[in-house]
Amino acid sequence: MRKPWRIALITIGAIVAVPVLALATTSIVNVVATNIEAGEITPYGQKVPVDGKEMNVLVSGTGDETIVLLPGLGTAAPALDFQPLIAELDDTYRVVAVEPFGTGLSDQTDVPRTAENITGEIHEALQQLGIDRYTLMGHSISGIYALTYTAAYQDEVTAFIGIDSSVPDQPGSDEAIPTSVVVTLGNLGITRILSGMAADPYDGLPYDEATKTQMALLTNRNASAPTLVDEMDHTPANFAAVSGATFPASLPLLLFVATEDADVDGWLALHEAQAASVDHGELIELAGGHYLHHTLSAELAQGVQTFLAGIPGR
């Protein structure tokens, strides 16, 4: 009577053991691959000291006006991700792509990823570079951080330009991001496998193969690392901190809004209201997805030039 149970238990054990061993293997492979890839990452930009650590910043162009680029949430290598836009802007402007802690080649940090801490660190990096007069241009979540930033450093920021930027009280902003899943999939090496199986996300876009390789390496390194995970965990609180907030009325505001793949109810109307909340606000709809700087950088650059040139008294 006991033998059938023994056979059943052995069978069940084998069924369970196969995926367990497979996951153990992918975890080990992920650790080994990450260590190997660390030596394949090519430096770019420059490191500046911030809060006892180093933040990576890429400066391109020598124009009289400065544009500071800030990334969206989860962008593993901001200065590389912004490359097509930088190429369109740096003939006219000095362009500064900041890689906040936990992204690109910047250090990790255990300082909580509140909007106040993130913006304070970015400001310190700009101060280290002697940059004290500039236009902020931010993608996605940076629209939320920019509200905190401009409230603190209004005398330095000459305008804000949003690239399909997030807005206060947008539907879904109070929903937690399942970061435990992100971390587990990353640690088990599953994210690496899925990324390897997926189609090239930059296919047909203006990135060379070397840049795409570097972005993939930095995605493997940063996507589930502690700093970015902590920023994801803080996202609902960072939205809540600016609930009902507006930009200073005197701050010129240009909002590029994507018309494709919008998954937030009232996305356009929210931006129309934000543009109307300042004395000089403009909105430009572009037929593209959320990452407008991947596909429509020339259109963004043209809009930026026209807008900045048209600001009264500039």
Automatic annotation (TrEMBL):
Ranges that cross the membrane: none
Alphabetical UniProt keywords: Hydrolase
Source superkingdom: Bacteria
A Pfam entry, by short name: Abhydrolase_6
GO cellular component, one term: membrane
SUPFAM superfamilies assigned to the protein according to its UniProt record, in alphabetical order: alpha/beta-Hydrolases
Keyword Transit peptide in annotation: no
Keyword Hydrolase among UniProt keywords: yes
Domain AB hydrolase-1: 67-294
GO terms for MF: hydrolase activity
InterPro entries referenced in this protein's UniProt entry, alphabetically: AB_hydrolase_1 (IPR000073), AB_hydrolase_fold (IPR029058), AB_hydrolase_sf (IPR050266)
The name this protein goes by in its record: Putative aminoacrylate hydrolase RutD
Organism: Microbacterium oxydans
Highest classification ranks of the organism: Bacteria, Bacillati, Actinomycetota, Actinomycetes, Micrococcales
